[in-house]
Structures are given as C-alpha cells and as structure tokens.
Design goal:
352 residues; alpha/beta; 2 domains; Rossmann fold; 14 strands; six-stranded parallel beta sheet; 17% strand; DUF3326 domain-containing protein; globular; DUF3326
C-alpha cells in the first residue's frame, strides 16, 4: 500500500518567554527529534536559529512566521528549493568594526559551507529599532525607518536576483537591564525576539520572499553563570550564521495563481501540529485548528501567553512534555489511537 507523506508543524511563538524555544535555539533538539518521525517538518526561525550554532535538517522547511501564518490560512503554499540566492542587508547604523565582523561571518558561510550569497547592501538610513515589552511579559518592537529596509530589499531582489533576504539591524545595547540579565540566566523573555519578528514580517509581507533577521549587538561581559539555554548567544560577535544557513534552503512562497508543481506543500497536507499549551491564540494555530490536523498541546512549555486551546474552541490533545508529544506523533503516524496504548480502554457505547 502506498503511504502518504507525513507532515508536522512545530510552532513556538517568539518573544513570549517559552520555557523551551524562548532562548538561543533551545528548541532545536525538539525539532531534530520530530524530524526523525516526520517526512516533512515545517517550523520557523525562532525554533531553528541558534546564533552561531545550527543543525542541518534536510526534511525541515525553515518558514518565516508571517509566511507560516499565510500557509496555515491556505493563502500561500510552500515550494522546497535546492538553493536560494541569499541577499544580505546591513543597517547603516552598525559601527564599522561590527559591520566587518558580520561580513566576515557571511564570507565564512560561503567558503566553509558553500552558501550562495549575493552582493550585500547597506541601508540608506538607520533602521532605528526600538525595543518594547508588554505588561504581560512578551517582547515586541518598532522600526523607525521601515521604508529604508524595504528599499534595500527591493534592490537586492531586482538588481542582485536575491531569492531570500537576511537582515542585520543594529539593536540597542542594554547590558545592564534586568530583562536581559534574566534572559541570560534562563529565567525571562527574549528582549529582542518580538522586534526581530516585526522586521522579517515586513519583508515577507511586502515581497513574498523568505526573510530572517540577526541582531547586531556589542559582545556582553563574560559571566560564568549564564544558562545553557542562552549560552549560544555568548559565543562570538554575530548571530548571522544560523540565519544564512536557514535561508539557504528556505522554501519559496507560492499562491494558487502560480503554476503548481508536484512538490508544492499546502495546508491540507499537514497531519499534526505541536504547540505550547498556553500559546494557542496566534493566527497560525487558529487557522490550523480548522483543518483535520491533530493539534498537540505541550503543557510543560510554559509561556507568558494565556491562550490555552479549550476556551478558543480548539480540539487539542494535551500532553505533559515534548517526550510525550513524540510518542503521540509516532502513534498518530502509525494510525494508532493513543487510548490503545493505555492499560484501560472503555467499551463502545451506542450512539443516541
């Protein structure tokens, strides 16, 4: 019997203080494990980015958050690629030495990993990123000059034929803040995650092209008490390598008007979705809940959000941990109802 491909979406929204996935690529082990079960794993940069650390998952589709929401709504499809031409945008507010560090990182990915990068571009005005934190704890931010970002992206697409965009914006240094210290010690919300999402959303929405962001920041003082979950961001001068690796094979976004190809992936092909149990209020998971996909809500991945599935009318299978979620995925793929794996099974009842 011919078996259909098994597709899983793994979502951990950014900037909400997720206990797993709220730090520097600390959800990568979850993604690696799910990728062993699924034929195709769809997830986003917040899960796969680990600053200078990354892991090649050939069956994972590195899908920016806005694009993932459009996919979940059935508006866009995902088209896997062999290789993207990645264009690099550098904020003109980045200091010369820090800019050089990022250019050297980009060249290193070309020479060591064989990535295909176009010529880079520097914005014609500072992006002026400002960081904000909501009362509930989640982080977000604003861009003072979004038009400068869009002009740079348009030039890379039109003149350099870039098919994916990496952005490096100068972020405010705030080494003494309590929020940053909590994050470094594995106890708080990523102070820059929400602002990073705003930047990539803007480019993807405007140009329907893969995009991801890496912040430019001065190195932080050495601290022996850093949490292992945030330690990947302490390793060097730039977070750019994981972004370039992810974008190098990020799927292209297609619409129903584009000529369909056999390998295009649409929301009706998703079999299961794994999400933190308190983070079910985003547009992506709300859209996916309207499909036949099995929603798996992970209880111990606590977040700053208060959006469990039940009040939203989402039918979800609650599990305690990602280890338990992996077992559910194995059973689901095998066509086995989870109740069959428990010691007690109730008898069938008559439908009245």
């Amino acid at each position: 019997m011919l078996k259909r491909s098994y597709t899983v979406v793994l979502m951990v929204p950014t900037g909400i203080g997720a206990r797993i996935g709220g730090y520097a690529g600390d959800a990568l082990p979850v993604a690696r494990a799910i990728a062993q079960i699924a034929d195709t794993l769809i997830t986003h940069p917040n899960v796969l980015n680990g600053a200078q650390l990354y892991w090649n998952l050939p069956n994972a589709l590195y899908t920016e958050g806005y694009g993932l929401d459009q996919f979940a709504a059935g508006v866009w499809g995902l088209r896997p690629v062999v290789q993207n031409r990645v264009g690099l945008i550098l904020d003109c507010a980045i200091e010369p030495e820090l800019r050089l560090r990022h250019l050297q990182a980009a060249d290193a990915t070309r020479a060591t990993l064989g990535l295909h990068l176009t010529d880079y571009i520097v914005t014609d005005a500072p992006l002026n990123v400002e960081l904000r934190q909501a009362e509930g704890g989640s982080s977000w931010g604003t861009i003072g000059n979004p038009d400068s970002l869009l002009r740079a992206a348009e030039r890379l697409i039109q003149q350099a034929q870039a098919t994916a965009i990496a952005v490096v914006a100068r972020f405010p240094d705030d080494s003494g803040s309590e929020t940053l210290q909590n994050y470094r010690y594995g106890q708080g919300v990523d102070p820059i995650g929400g602002a990073e999402a705003v930047i990539s959303h803007l480019v993807v929405r405007q140009f329907r092209i893969p995009c991801a962001h890496a912040p430019a920041l001065l190195p932080l003082p050495l601290d022996p008490d850093i949490s292992p979950r945030s330690a990947a961001e302490e390793l060097g001068y730039t977070f750019l390598p994981c972004v370039l690796v992810g974008l190098s094979r990020a799927p292209q976004f297609v619409t129903l008007e584009d000529r369909p190809l056999a390998g295009d992936l649409w929301v009706n092909q998703v079999d299961a979705v794994v999400v933190p149990a308190t983070a079910c209020g985003g547009s992506g998971i709300l859209s996916l809940s309207q499909t036949p996909a099995q929603i798996i809500a992970v209880g111990d991945n606590q977040t700053a959000m208060r959006s469990p599935p039940e009040p939203l009318g989402i039918k979800a299978l609650r599990v305690n941990s990602y280890l338990e979620a992996l077992g559910v995925l194995v059973a689901h793929r095998a066509g086995i109802h989870p109740s069959a794996l428990s010691p007690k099974i109730s008898s069938l009842r008559s439908l009245t």
